[in-house]
Write a structure and sequence with these properties.
By secondary structure, the protein is of the alpha+beta class. Helix content is about 25%, strand content about 30%. Strands 2, 3, 4, 5, 6, 7, 8 and 9 form an eight-stranded antiparallel sheet that branches. The termini are far apart. About 25% of the residues are buried.
């Protein structure tokens, strides 16, 4: 006597057919998924624009005027930046310890910045170069003597102490990841306002 499956009761869900699982089927599904991911990545790579983000410039003249009106700093600033350079940040901070900042990018997108404050040289170097910055040989830039500084990350800076409008001592620092000559170029272009 052969056995036959019993018919399903009326209203009961039909039994699902079983399928055979195999490692070959699993590997095939993984390969199909991998090919789909690779095709998508290739498509995105070919259609993506790799244009660098444009640098947005700022007009640093307003912060120079604010610093001059503060009458506490000498405000050393360039009349104009070298060709191809862009001012990317500028700020004057008022108060008991005023400071002036100008950040620039060179034509090849290296940073060079100017920092001016009533703080002493060591404090300014620690804040804007490195806590462990190494002093180097003095250099003469546009007839003025500047102290050089370097750090382990490749930054180069020059500093000098000047007298403010009220006779106070203040520090001017020019620092950057740009080549030393470009840092010195910006330092040489600074004029008191």
């Amino acid at each position: 006597m052969s056995e036959s499956p019993e018919p399903a009761a009326p209203g009961a869900p039909a039994a699902r057919p079983r399928y055979q699982r195999s490692s070959g089927g699993l590997i095939g599904a993984m390969l199909a998924t991998l090919l789909a991911v690779l095709a998508f990545a290739a498509f995105r790579g070919l259609t993506r624009d790799n244009e660098p983000t444009p640098v947005r410039g700022v007009d640093y003249a307003a912060s120079v005027r604010a610093a001059i009106e503060g009458k506490k700093l000498s405000v050393l600033a360039p009349d104009r930046l070298p060709t191809g350079w862009t001012a990317t940040s500028a700020a004057y901070t008022r108060g008991g310890s005023p400071s002036w900042h100008l950040g620039t990018l060179t034509g090849d997108r290296n940073y060079v910045g100017v920092e001016e404050s009533l703080s002493d040289t060591d404090d300014v170097v620690e804040e804007h170069v490195d806590v462990n910055a190494d002093p180097g040989q003095d250099v003469t830039i546009d007839g003025e003597r500047w102290q050089t500084w370097t750090d382990s990350g490749g930054d180069y800076a020059v500093t000098r102490t000047i007298r403010g409008p009220d006779g106070s001592r203040q520090t001017v620092l020019v620092v950057g990841s740009a080549p030393d000559a470009q840092v010195r170029q910006l330092a040489g272009s600074l004029t008191a306002r």
